[in-house]
Write a structure and sequence with these properties.
The complex is a heterodimer of chains A (457) and B (182). Chain A contains six helices and 23 strands. With 457 residues, chain A is mainly beta. Chain A has a single domain, classed as Porin (Beta Barrel). The termini of chain B are far apart. Classes of the chains: A mainly beta (457), B alpha+beta (182). Chains A and B meet through helix 1, helix 2, helix 3, strand 9 and strand 14 of A and helix 1, strand 1, strand 2 and strand 8 of B.
Chain lengths: 457, 182
Amino acid sequence: MHGQNKQLLYDFTDIPQSLMVNPAADVDFKWYGGILGLSGISLQAGSSGVSAYDLLADDGLNINDKVRDRLLNGMTISDELSGNSQVEILNSGWRRKHPDYFYSLGVYNESDAIGYWFKDYAILAFDGNADSFRRFNLGHLKTRGSIVNVYHFGVKKRVNDKLLIGGRAKIYSGILDFNSTRNKGFLQNTEGQNNVISTTLDADLEMRTSGLNVLRDADSEDIGSVFTKRALFGGDLGLGLDLGFTKYFNDQTVLTASMLDLGFIYHSSDTKNWTLKGKATSEGVEIILPGALADPDADFYQQLIDDIEALAPFEENFKNYITFRPTKLNASLRHNFGKQIQVGEDCDCGPYASQSKRAPRFANAVGAQIYAINRPRGPQTALTAFYLRRFGNVAALKATYTVDKFSATNIGLGLNLQAGPINLYFMADNLLSYRNLYNSRYASFQLGLNIISWGKK
Amino acid sequence: MKHLFKYFFLGIFALVTISSCVENIDSDQFDDLELTPTLEGGLLYIEASEQLINLVTDNTVFSNTFNFDAFNSDVFAERVIEGTVTFVVENTTSKELDITVEFLDDSGAVLDTEAFTIQPAPTSILQREIVYGPTGRSIDIITNLSSIRVSAINLGDTTSTSSAPEPMITLKSGGKFTVRVK
């Protein structure tokens, strides 16, 4: 899902949260602490098919015509509606006496959901199946979503003056999950063998949920405590891992890469699943005389319903299940240039400190990034070109141009401000779409507030 | 060069700030969105062989009532707008037959009747489409339908046999109904 791409934050090492997208990000702090609840907030939403403006513009066109043209005929099953939010509850990091190691830990809450365009279901709902032998593909239903608390601890190690490696262990505390991603089957009318029309349902559909019922059934007063309990390891549990590296070919050329959320959640609490599996063909109530009259009390209609339900039963179960987290890959190639900057104040940990192995910082950097995420319909990628400009030690700006399935004109801007120990950052992308927000197919912003120390000389 | 970068970023900020706006949308349009699919499926199929017809000495070959509750459930009855029921009667026997289809409500009262007189083979297929709703018969016939009575009367003899393979009388029927989902 594009909604988890943080191309502005990635490799923006002036910001502590860059460690969250690459555990080997070359941050140079002695320690940092996020302001509780404010250290990292990100909201992202995207629709690759249509915007709200496409459908609801006050343009005098009939809404039904617009839906037909732009949704039914305009969108494909690869188009998606997705959203993601992350709120850091706690985040801090510190360098121990040994300057080659940096540790970080924290907790954040993440909500995300994705739904692909369920084209054949929409056609069925809009037009129905009459006068058509169309095979409605039931596999067009693909959706998933979750709310999860993530507890994490990361270590970054400077292997030598050219290489940093990092890892982050994660424990997921699942609060809510729903997914229906492996559906197959079809619904089709054909010419009947006996009757005028034959209808075949061949379905292998499943919707799995966890936490839905306990939250739905909770009173409005209790919902907070239920949510909190599940967020504090009282719901589903999982494990995950982030890995990354930063490789300096020289002071000016840097390669970075990270793999995030290589992990799973085992859903074992408050699970409730629904399935529709089987194949049934019906031409309506069939009565073959005289045999059908052998039982004068026979109810052929009910028998038909019973037969269909037996052949393609709609069932409920409470089985536990595993979901894999959407694993993300990031990589960047950066070229630094311009004036070298001495980082921090009263610093003894930067490139100018005694016995430092750190690479110097430059006022400018340009480069390219690639992002990929594993999604229900296969990997999705985004390409980004960026320019980073530092203004002394007080400000830094990063501008990005990103191409992905949502937009080919996605320009983003991130601003990092450093006032003494106070660090504030704000980022937003797809800025050109701000000309008309309703017409935007993608919007995101991130902000955060931290306290940073570079230590005393 | 330093000033150039400052102006570059200031320019982007200014551009975004000045151009950020929203054009009017009319979210009330959603109220006008109509979801009215037309659903089609088979309804009832009956067949009776010529052998059976010849065995019945009374000229009423059969007259039976079959439960059919597909349309009177609330989920359908409250949403159906209009529809068409198609009957296809085919006779490959050697007899002329009268076929009568009656729609009954749950008290057994007749809501609608459709009668077919069909000639012996080989000119023996009748197709009829009955429209229900604003341009046809009352849709209430459909929403109150609880059972279907089908009767067949032999207007010919009980001795002859058609030369067609497996001679029989068949009644096929299908329905197309438009329902308002939204």
